Amino acid sequence: METIIKSIYNNYINYIGTGKVADYIPPLAKVSPDKYAISICTVDGEKYNIGDYKEKFSIQSISKVFTLSMLAPMMGKEIWECVGKEPSGSPFNSLVQLEYEKGIPRNPFINAGALVITDKLLERVPGFSNELLQYVRSLAGSDDIDYNKEVSDSEYVTGERNKALAHMMKSFGNFKGKVSQVFRAYCNQCSIEMSTEQLAQAFLFLANKGINPLSGEQVVSYRDSKRINALMLTCGFYDESGDFAYRVGLPGKSGVGGGIVAIIPGKLSIAVWSPELNKYGNSCRGIATLADFTTELGISIF
Ligand code: GLU
Prior knowledge:
By secondary structure, the chain is α+β, with helices and mostly antiparallel strands. It has helices at residues 2-12, 63-75, 79-82, 96-100, 111-124, 128-140, 149-158, 160-171, 179-190, 196-202, 222-235, 241-247, 284-297, and strands at 20-21, 37-42, 47-51, 57-58, 193-194, 252-254, 259-264, 268-273, 276-277. The longest helix has 14 residues, at 111-124. It is globular. The model has no long low-confidence stretch (mean pLDDT 96).
């Protein structure tokens, strides 16, 4: 494994200039495009890291997996009355589909779907923003994880489209809380900063039948972990989910901070960070790295 990771890393070390660092949230534009890190954690406790794996980056939409996992045990199948489980085939912040589909977002990993999940969590979890941090810290086995206030504030001020999504859902009766409050919590969750080392560890429960290998705690039931993985496979990369399944063949989730985390059920989790994004909002070098990883290792879910 170590040799394969090193050789992929070395092959792609100069692979920049193919995409663009996200700039619609202004502080994200300041991140250097040449950052590159790969981290792997296996369910047997092995770890492999290379590159900028200790450096923290904005996890952005990867946080949507944490919030869905937090809500799943509280709401069970009722979740699926307010959000769907089908790929969207549309950009992550599209308004058009939401109007046609009467305020029910296609899935929990597009922005509208994640806003609904956060709305439900705020209704159910007192002190939600603090609880979410504790939740992520316990999964990662590290207290050194926080929100980035500058990123959160900046998204809060510039995120007119996300507010429009929330207002549209409210007009259809699929949103309980105050838009400003829920959107603030959403901006906070997207601004969480983690390293690939922390992220790979934090996703390992999804490769381990829903059990956090560090604490032995059942974070979500086996059934929910199976379902969250299925959603990551079909919806984790917006309207590039089909291509990611084709090229990489693993459940995973991306964020516009350039992070991607993917899992091989029963075996391992892998996190990659490289900030340049393709037109779908997914890390160019991250996808290339993962495609080579599954091919060279000879393991994917297919
Ligand atoms: N905070 C970002 C937004 O809502 C998340 C998008 C992403 O990472 O894909 O636009």
